[in-house]
Automatic annotation (TrEMBL):
Protein name as annotated: Phosphoribosylaminoimidazole-succinocarboxamide synthase
UniProt-listed HAMAP family: SAICAR_synth (MF_00137)
The protein's Enzyme Commission number: 6.3.2.6
Recorded metabolic or biological pathway in which this protein acts: Purine metabolism; IMP biosynthesis via de novo pathway; 5-amino-1-(5-phospho-D-ribosyl)imidazole-4-carboxamide from 5-amino-1-(5-phospho-D-ribosyl)imidazole-4-carboxylate: step 1/2
Native source species: Octadecabacter ascidiaceicola
Length: 243
């Protein structure tokens, strides 16, 4: 079988050249990594679940008018996406204290925040994706002030949508990370949600029991990661077997 040209291989995904100019094929691997790849494993079926879940969230966002890179799912592990220029930032939205914020500020995990907080990390594995203030982003030219204002507005819309959808199935959206890309339609630049939205990039807690249903299960050795992701997919009605 003819192989496609590899464009980029990351920790959990591979990008191949797409069938038309300006498109890519995004392949979801079963690899799980944490702590900047110091902890690694292969979780059978994770890629299939994340492909499905990311499709679900991206389609839902498009339905409410939030532009994304998603074009269509191709098969169990692959989706066709628009090629974008990724802004080198991890855009994190938090509703409750957890993870690095809880640690940095000495807060108890699960403490509700006064309002959703958007923060930025500079995407660089060798530096461990350090938290950066807006001042750095603008001074170093990673994004303009206008871009940043638009990114914050986009991130908060994603948060409203995701929190609502998850609440509807008994899950608390603690926090999540998105990546934003630039696409050009002729001379007109648009910001779109890119990469993936999945339990790899969110914190999701069962509202009743507090059970973690996200990558913290892997980070903290809390049980079977595929079971947790399957629970999320089942509740959202997007199990891969319902193809
Ligand atoms: O670790 P931290 O608390 O900063 O993570 C905030 C959110 O961003 C979590 O949902 C985490 O899964 C996500 N994240 C991510 N990729 C990273 C860093 C954080 O998806 N490189």
């Amino acid at each position: 079988m003819a192989r496609r040209k590899l464009v980029y291989e990351g920790k959990a995904k591979i990008l191949y050249e797409g069938p038309e100019p300006g498109t890519l094929v995004q392949y979801f691997k079963d690899d799980a990594t944490a702590f900047n790849a110091e902890k690694k494993d292969v979780i059978d079926g994770k890629g299939v679940l994340n492909n499905r879940l990311s499709e679900f969230f991206m389609l839902g966002l498009q339905r409410i008018g939030v532009p994304t890179h998603f074009i269509r799912r191709l098969n169990m592990r692959e989706q066709l996406i628009r090629q974008v220029e990724i802004i080198p930032l991890e855009v994190i939205v938090r509703n409750f204290a957890a993870g690095s914020m809880a640690k940095r500020l000495g807060m108890e995990e699960g403490t509700p925040l006064p309002r959703p907080i958007v923060e930025f990390s500079y995407k660089d594995d060798s530096l461990g994706d350090p938290l950066v203030p807006e001042e750095y982003i603008i001074a170093f030219g990673w994004a303009s002030q206008q871009d940043l204002d638009d990114i914050v507005a986009l991130a908060l819309r994603v948060n409203d949508f995701m929190a609502g959808v998850m609440h509807g199935v008994g899950i608390k959206l603690v926090d999540f990370k998105i990546e934003i890309g630039r696409v050009w339609d002729n001379d007109f630049m648009r910001l779109v949600v890119a990469d993936e939205i999945s339990p790899d990039s969110c914190r999701l807690w069962d509202i009743e029991s507090g059970r973690k249903l996200d990558k913290d299960v892997f980070r903290q050795d809390l049980g079977d990661l595929a079971d947790a992701y399957t629970e999320v997919a089942k509740r959202l009605g997007v199990m891969p077997s319902n193809a």
